[in-house]
TrEMBL record:
It comes from the Eukaryota. InterPro entries: F-box_BR-signaling, KIB1-4_b-propeller. Residues 63-331 form the KIB1-4 beta-propeller domain. This is KIB1-4 beta-propeller domain-containing protein. It holds the Pfam family Beta-prop_KIB1-4.
Length: 360
């Protein structure tokens, strides 16, 4: 058995911090970049920039000390507001709350060594708790295309690598269901949905994804979509509803005087399917009420827009070839007008960060 080291000590939540944060809920934000501002004997000090979807503006953090465990480490995923980095020398994943705007003293949780060299650079990571310092929690991650790796850092000294059936390969993004207490993912083509139950001997089950009431699109439109790249995502609402999302991006080549100038990708459309509580089929919908869904390189999540002034209901906030929001009712795409492609930074990929009320 190994402990979770949070700068060498277990930490507990302060009651006054929880009360204060309940009066001022932090909105979701997109982590853009992190840059060194100075160095001293105490360590490296950084600031990072975020995109606030409630105001559609870039904001900046206060100056923070970069924990030594994270120095020079690539970021490989995010879940529940915690960001995962990979230490290649020891094949170890570290979780940190450094990038939460409300955190002044960043914490680091070191997980067991993976046991092999990861074969995928961008790793999907999912946590079962938004407060892994306080709570008993489990982690699921994808370090290659053939296994889902899981561990409970309080009781496990190593990861368990669960082999996935051929029909599920490669596995899609991971998500944790608070309703069902399992990790979910789909197959790459979205034909199957798998559930991993850690309380039942890490049992992996999978079933067909049945889609009903497909959107009414002309045949030529379906043919065009079939030629596009489509990613699949599962996300759970605050009330426990499960949604299956298809995100379509079309690749374009631009030529000038017969020579290829560049290739770029545009967001074409989103299709959202809500799981039926009785049949467990997924039914197409263009109305998710006041909900909004956040998709990026991190674990997808869903929020009630009424809880965060400025968020657009019935929308998807996405990070794809660009950054924007998509209105499901009208099918209107709204790219945000600011340049996120600047100088090289410490962050390898942008992540939507789940809003959190914890303060440290």
């Amino acid at each position: 058995m190994i402990p979770i080291f949070v700068h060498g000590n277990w930490q507990t939540r302060r009651d006054n911090a929880r009360f204060f944060s309940s009066l001022m809920p932090q909105s979701p934000c997109l982590l853009l970049d992190c840059k060194k501002v100075r160095e001293s004997p105490e360590g490296k000090f950084v600031k990072y920039s975020l995109f606030d979807p409630t105001t559609e503006k870039k904001v900046f953090s206060s100056e923070k000390t970069m924990p030594k465990e994270l120095l020079g480490r690539p970021l490989v995923g995010a879940s529940q507001g915690w960001v995962a980095s990979l230490e290649n020398k020891y094949d170890t994943v570290h979780l940190t709350d450094l990038y939460k705007p409300c955190v002044s003293s960043p914490r680091v949780i070191s997980l067991p060594p993976i046991g092999f060299k990861p074969s995928v650079y961008a790793t999907e990571v999912s946590l079962s708790s938004s407060d892994p310092v306080q709570d008993d929690f489990s982690v699921a991650a994808k370090f290659n295309e053939y296994h889902i790796s899981v561990c409970n850092p309080r009781t496990d000294s190593e990861w368990t690598h669960v082999e996935t059936p051929y029909s599920l390969l490669p596995a899609s993004e991971l998500m944790y269901s608070k309703r069902d207490k399992v990790f979910y993912f789909t197959s790459f083509k979205g034909l199957y949905m798998a559930s991993l139950d850690l309380s039942n001997n890490k049992d992996l089950k999978y079933k067909d994804i049945r889609l009903r009431n497909q959107p009414k699109i002309p045949e030529a439109g379906w043919e065009m979509l079939d030629k596009c790249f489509m990613s699949k995502h599962l996300v759970e609402s605050p009330s426990g509803e499960l949604f299956f999302i298809k995100y379509t991006q079309c690749i374009h080549k631009e030529d000038k005087d017969g020579s290829l100038e560049f290739i770029h990708s545009d967001t074409k459309r989103f299709m959202v399917f809500r799981q039926d509580g009785m049949s467990k089929d997924f039914c197409y919908t263009e109305d998710i009420g006041d909900l909004c869904i956040f998709l990026s390189k991190s674990e997808a999540f869903c929020l009630s827009s009424s809880m965060y002034e400025g968020l657009k209901p019935n929308s998807i906030y996405y990070v794809g070839p660009r950054l924007g929001s998509y209105d499901l009712a009208s099918g209107t795409n709204n790219p945000f007008t600011f340049d996120r492609f600047g100088e090289p930074s410490l962050v390898s990929a942008p992540f939507w960060l789940y809003p959190t009320n914890s303060i440290a």
